[in-house]
Amino acid sequence: MLIQPSSLALLVYRIGETLAVEYGVDPASAYAELGLDPDGPADAGERVPNSVVTAMFERALAMSGDPAVGIRVGLRSEPRHFFVIGHTWLASATLGDAIRKLLRYEAIFDSGETDLGFEREGDCLVLSECYPESGDYPGKLRVDNEIASVLKMCRLSAGREVLPRRIEVFLPPGAPTDIYRPLTQGEVERSAVRTALHFDPADIESPLAGSIPDVVEATCRIADRYLGSLDNSKVAHQVRAQLVQMLPSGAVDQEKVAARLYRSASTLQRQLSAEGTSYRDVLDETRRELAQAYLRDGRHSQTETAFLVGFSDQSNFSRAFRRWTGKSPGEYRKATRPGSSRSAG
C-alpha cells in the first residue's frame, strides 16, 4: 500500500458538495486551508492523504454544526464516487457479491490499515469494521459516511431501500445514537470493538436485475491494475519494473539494478529487507510470473521463454521452473492449454 495512507480524492469533494447543497455553506475556504484545487480532482483515481480527509470532515462538522454530517455525505454517494467499483457494484449478481468486491478492493477507498469482514452470524449476514487497537478507528464522521454509503449503493443496486435488521456502532463517549435510527429496521447498539450492519440474507443474496457479468469482469481488471499502481512506492515494485526490462539481456545482477535505481546495492538490499523481502526473492518471483505467462500464452518456445526470463541455458531454466512450480516447463504448458482439465499448480 502507499507509505502514507490515502483515499480517493472524490470523497473530500463530496464532503464539499454536501456542505454546499445540504447546508448552503461554501466549501472554498476549507479547500484553500487544505491546499485542494477548488475545481475538483483531475481524474477519478486521484488520491489525497487520509489526514486531509479527516481534516475536511472536521471542517464540515464545524461549518454545518450537524452531528449527522457524515451520514449526509454518505447518502450523497453515487457510483462515480467509487472509481470503477461503483460500476462493479451496480453490475453484480447480488448485493452479497457487490459487498465481497468492496472487501476485495477496500484499499482503493482507504489504503490504511482496515479490518473489514462479511460473514454469517446467526440468522444475519454481517458487514463489519473492527478496531482491535485504539488507533484503528478512522473517526466517527468517516464511519458514518461508510455506513450511509453502503446503504445508498444497496438502494441504487436493488432499486429499493435495503436496511439492516440492526446496527452496531462504535462511538465516542456521549455521541448520540438517534442519528442512525433512519438507517436500520431495528435497534442501534453501541459497541466497544466494531461497527456492524446486520442484514437479512434474503436481501443480500437475491438476484439483481442489473447484473452484467462482463462489466464486473472488466471493471475488476481495471481495479486490479489501479491497486497495483498504489504499490509503486515500494522498492520491491521498482526493482520488479527494472527486472522486466532487463531480463532478456541476462544482465540482472543486483549492482546493475541498484545503479538504475540510483542507490548502492547495500542500500537496495536494506530497503528490500525492511519490506520483508530480498533481491533474490524479487528476482525469483518476477522470473516465475513471466515464465508462467509466456508458457500459458503459447507464442514462445521453451528456449525463447528461458531467454526472455534471463536464463542462457535451457537446463538451468527447467530446474528453476520445477523448483518454482513442481512441474517442468513442458508439463506446465500442457496442463494450461485451453480445454485442459488438469490444474496448472
Describe this structure in words.
There is one protein chain. This protein is of the alpha+beta class. The protein has two domains: 6-213, H-NOX domain (Alpha-Beta Complex), CATH 3.90.1520; 234-335, Homeodomain-like (Arc Repressor Mutant, subunit A), CATH 1.10.10. The protein is 52% helix and 10% strand. The chain has 17 helices and seven strands. It has helices at 9-23, 28-33, 50-64, 69-75, 85-91, 95-104, 106-109, 140-158, 201-205, 213-230, 235-246, 254-260, 265-274, 279-297, 302-308, 314-325, 329-335; strands at residues 6-8, 47-49, 116-121, 124-130, 166-170, 188-191, 194-199. The strands form two sheets. A five-stranded mixed sheet has the order 3-4-7-5-6. The chain starts with 5 loop residues before the first strand and ends in a 10-residue tail after the last helix. The relative contact order is 0.09. The model is unreliable at 341-345 (pLDDT under 50).
Q: How would you characterize the largest beta sheet? A: 5 strands, mixed
CATH homology superfamily of the largest domain: H-NOX domain
- The parts where pLDDT drops under 50 for at least 5 residues are 341-345
Helix-strand topology string: EHHEHHHHHEEHEEEHHHHHHHHH
Helix count equals 17
Spatial arrangement of strands, main beta sheet = 3-4-7-5-6
Mean of all residue-level pLDDT scores? 89
β-sheet strand percentage = 5-15%
DSSP E strands, number: 7
Shape: globular
Protein structure class: alpha+beta
**Multimeric state:** single chain
Helix content: 40-55%
Number of domains: 2
CATH architecture of the largest domain: Alpha-Beta Complex
Q: Could you say what the CATH topology of the largest domain is called?
A: H-NOX domain
Radius of gyration: 24 Å
Distance between the termini: 28 Å
Please identify the top-level CATH class of the largest domain.
Answer: Alpha Beta
